[in-house]
């Protein structure tokens, strides 16, 4: 949900936001407007020959008791001021709503103590006191005498809930609106101006900032606080919790003599050096691809087993920066940055690096040129969306014959040395994702255009950037300047690249625990995830039940057959019935039949394709909040500990030996554990469609095509997206829209290639998919419309290279935005 600043969703999401804003605002004032025995309050008649502006303020009654939550009683004062006009104007209530200043304990990420850097501070709701400067809405006809707040769009249910949680929900919405802008003229500015003004990415030194990032910091601080009481050597806590604690308390130390044999400072390589052994070793021990990258996932032509997918590497910069002429300056800047970093690295391990200045300069230039050649040989993102073309299965013997200059044996032996090498000559499959790239790589290592020293310089440079946060100082600053994201994070998980991070995140909290928690979140995802979910207590079951119900409703709303009443519409139909003017009772009337849903309204989709879509929806696995089989009942942790112990257990031993001096070893063990436990070991295990892939404490949601599953981790179910105690309108506008978005990913240009069980469906030589030929033509036309629509969206920056959205690259997210928010909010 790329390289552009992302602060809002698609058009349908914006419309949904306006609807939710209106509804929640009405929730806040229902009780007061209908206060006296729910008697309807007539709207004041229009004042002839004048414009009426109504100013409403909410005044809280005085109380002699300490207020822990807002009092529900309020007094509404209304005044009408007249201005000269020749038009008849309907009075518009524009409130200045003051939310009571009420404290609630929350973990703060901005202050630290010696005992714990995550401390509790009072959280005060921000009062919304903005008065709109927009022009009043006018009408030339008198308003009928109808009950206030009782319309088709906003039926009167009775006394509203003025609880703290409802007021907090409204405060979230109102605090983000720029009411100096008319939403009818610029809805983007109306909804986003305030957020952009308060979170300038340039000031923060990052390429992207979002509510998700803010929430993730809060979640990480909460985990750090929960870990404060964990004793590393106490059997009271699970081994998983103790491993998480042991890594978190380690201190940084400088490491200057990491490499033996560094070509750019004149060192020769050791005798018998094997390039592909080094590549496999780096990938297993540092979760970092170099000239290629391996990943274990479900074999999506034989879903009863896993396969090892080998693909082109993920480069430090977007491919476009390397190959398009308008970004030549980016390459020049990168060459200078690498030169400075390599020189500074030489300075930390040598008394005088000056004699090697020429070699360092050449090495930096060679590295940038090599990256550019890799980029030119790589497939662009638009080609990475077709999985029939990327599924090229081989036996090891055939692979060696096809690309003979690539030492596959050395690479695979080093890569699988800890996890155990499968029989790649038997049933285990090796899948080459981009055949033409490996043809280029085969030619590269067989020719005389590069030597091993140059390639080793490239690998060492990547490692320096991988460890930049650990090395600190100029190295960390260089990584920030380069917007460097560690390899495992920019590569993502699974074929859909779940959790892929394209921008370096901000670290401006001053809380030393947060970077550590973030590291563990990526490299041992279920450690902090378990700590977070366990700390939620019994409420977790209520939230899980609510999200399950919500998701099923959204899915039905999207998939309901045409000849049945629309699930949510049928509920609203009860309130569309006319009232008897005398009794006020609604007439008995059956819900209308045949209200079209999204799927049934697609004329280009044949009935056979719609049936296939229904089968896919029925087969979709839903993962809610946390992995139940792994976490169990939160008392018996044997299964969880057995999952982590082989790859992470020795971290506790290193901690007990000397956690200060062993920190680097502990960190590397965690990264190696991630590569083995979350990827390579899967080769000898049966696929599990309920695999979360990421941490339950990770603020995101995702769809996995190869498993046909949607996953909503617990961490995402927090404000501003969801709160169990918030109005349902708020929750459906937030998490409901997200649920719809992820569901629609199952039917976007990638999702339609995979069937109900996650396997590639009805494959031909050039494509896979369960749609009929006619439906595919219609789908492609629809998708091209979305591509064209988003191609026209450009950054407002008027100088330098103007960056526009690439509609072809982002079409999956755009289809999910446009199609997913509607079933969640209507």
Contiguous runs where pLDDT drops below 50 for at least 5 residues: 1-148, 246-260, 562-596
Shape annotation: globular
The number of distinct β-strands equals 12
Give me the CATH architecture of the largest domain, please. 3-Layer(aba) Sandwich
Instruction: Supply the CATH superfamily name of the largest domain.
Output: Collagenase (Catalytic Domain)
How many domains? The number is 4
**Over all CA atoms, what is the radius of gyration?**
29 Å
Mean pLDDT over all positions: 76
Largest sheet: 4 strands, mixed
Distance between the termini: 21 Å
Strand line-up across the major sheet = 6-7-9-8
Structural class call reads alpha/beta
Strand composition percent: 5-15%
Per DSSP, the total helix count is: 30
> What is the fold named in CATH at topology level of the largest domain?
Collagenase (Catalytic Domain)
Helix content percent band:
40-55%
Broad CATH class of the largest domain: Alpha Beta
């Amino acid at each position: 949900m790329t390289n552009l600043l992302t602060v809002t969703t698609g058009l349908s999401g914006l419309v949904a936001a306006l609807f939710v804003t209106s509804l929640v605002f009405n929730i806040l004032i229902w009780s007061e407007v209908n206060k006296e025995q729910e008697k309807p309050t007539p709207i004041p008649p229009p004042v002839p020959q004048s414009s009426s502006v109504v100013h409403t303020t909410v005044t809280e009654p005085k109380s002699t008791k300490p207020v822990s939550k807002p009092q529900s009683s309020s007094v509404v004062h209304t005044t009408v001021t007249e201005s000269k006009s020749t038009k008849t104007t309907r009075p518009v209530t524009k409130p200045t709503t003051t939310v009571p200043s009420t404290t609630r304990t929350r973990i703060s990420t901005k202050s630290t103590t010696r005992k714990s850097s995550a401390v509790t501070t009072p959280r005060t709701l921000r009062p919304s006191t903005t008065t709109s400067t927009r022009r009043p809405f006018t009408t030339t006809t008198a308003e009928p005498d109808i009950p206030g707040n009782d319309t088709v769009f906003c039926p009167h249910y009775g006394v509203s809930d003025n609880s703290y949680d409802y007021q907090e929900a409204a405060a979230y919405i109102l605090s983000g609106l720029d009411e100096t802008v008319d939403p009818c003229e610029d809805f983007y500015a109306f909804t986003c101006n305030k957020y952009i003004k308060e979170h300038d990415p340039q000031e923060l030194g990052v390429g992207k900032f979002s509510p998700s990032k803010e929430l993730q910091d809060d979640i990480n601080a909460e985990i750090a606080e929960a870990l404060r009481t964990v004793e590393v050597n106490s059997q009271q806590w699970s081994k998983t919790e103790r491993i998480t604690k042991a890594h978190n308390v380690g201190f940084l130390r400088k490491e200057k003599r990491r490499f033996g044999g560094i070509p750019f400072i004149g060192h020769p390589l050791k005798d018998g050096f094997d390039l592909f052994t080094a590549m496999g070793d780096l990938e297993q021990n540092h979760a970092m691809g170099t000239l290629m990258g391996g990943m274990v996932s479900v074999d999506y032509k034989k879903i009863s087993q896993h396969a090892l997918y080998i693909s082109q590497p993920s480069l430090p910069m977007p491919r476009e920066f390397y190959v398009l002429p308008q970004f030549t300056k980016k390459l020049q800047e990168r060459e200078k940055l690498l030169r400075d970093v390599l020189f500074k690295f030489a300075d930390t391990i040598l008394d005088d690096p000056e004699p090697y200045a020429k070699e360092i300069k050449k090495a930096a230039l060679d590295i940038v040129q090599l990256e550019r050649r890799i980029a030119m040989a790589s497939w662009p993102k638009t080609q990475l969306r077709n999985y029939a073309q990327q599924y090229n299965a081989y036996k090891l013997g055939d692979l060696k014959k096809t690309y003979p200059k690539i030492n596959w044996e050395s690479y695979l032996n080093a890569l699988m040395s800890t996890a155990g090498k499968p029989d790649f000559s038997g049933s285990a499959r090796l899948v080459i994702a981009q055949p033409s790239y490996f043809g280029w790589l085969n030619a590269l290592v067989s020719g005389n255009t590069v030597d091993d020293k140059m390639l080793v310089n490239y690998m060492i440079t990547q490692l320096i950037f991988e460890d930049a946060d650990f090395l600190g100082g100029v190295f960390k600053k260089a990584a920030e300047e380069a917007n460097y994201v560690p390899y495992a994070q920019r590569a993502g998980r699974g074929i859909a690249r779940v959790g892929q991070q394209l921008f370096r995140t901000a670290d401006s909290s001053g809380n030393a625990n947060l970077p550590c928690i973030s590291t563990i979140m990526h490299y041992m995802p279920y450690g902090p995830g378990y700590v977070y979910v366990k700390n939620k207590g019994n409420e977790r079951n209520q939230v899980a039940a609510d999200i399950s119900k919500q998701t099923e409703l959204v899915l039905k709303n999207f998939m309901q057959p045409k000849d049945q009443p629309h699930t949510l519409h049928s509920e609203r139909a009860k309130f569309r019935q006319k009232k008897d003017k005398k009794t006020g009772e609604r007439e008995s009337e059956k819900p209308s039949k045949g209200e079209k849903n999204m799927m049934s309204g697609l004329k280009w989709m044949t009935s056979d394709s719609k049936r296939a879509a229904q089968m896919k929806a029925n087969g979709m696995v839903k993962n809610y909040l946390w992995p139940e089989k792994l976490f169990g009942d939160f008392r018996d942790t044997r299964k969880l500990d057995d999952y982590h112990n082989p790859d992470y257990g020795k971290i506790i031993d290193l901690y007990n030996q000397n956690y200060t001096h062993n920190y680097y070893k502990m960190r590397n063990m965690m990264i190696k554990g991630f590569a083995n436990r979350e990827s390579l070991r899967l080769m000898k295990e049966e696929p599990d469609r309920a695999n979360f892939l990421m941490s339950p404490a990770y603020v995101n949601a995702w769809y996995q095509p190869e498993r046909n599953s949607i996953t909503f981790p617990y961490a995402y179910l927090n404000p501003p997206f969801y709160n169990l105690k918030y109005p349902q309108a708020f929750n459906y506008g937030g998490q409901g829209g997200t649920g719809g978005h992820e569901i629609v990913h199952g039917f976007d240009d990638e999702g339609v290639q995979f069937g109900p069980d996650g396997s590639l469906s009805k494959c031909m030589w050039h494509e896979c998919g369960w749609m009929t030929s006619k439906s595919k033509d219609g789908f492609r036309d629809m998708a091209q419309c979305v591509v064209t629509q988003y191609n026209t969206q450009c950054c407002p920056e008027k100088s330098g290279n103007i960056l526009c959205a690439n509609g072809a690259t982002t079409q999956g997210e755009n289809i999910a935005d446009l199609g997913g928010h509607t079933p969640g909010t209507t």
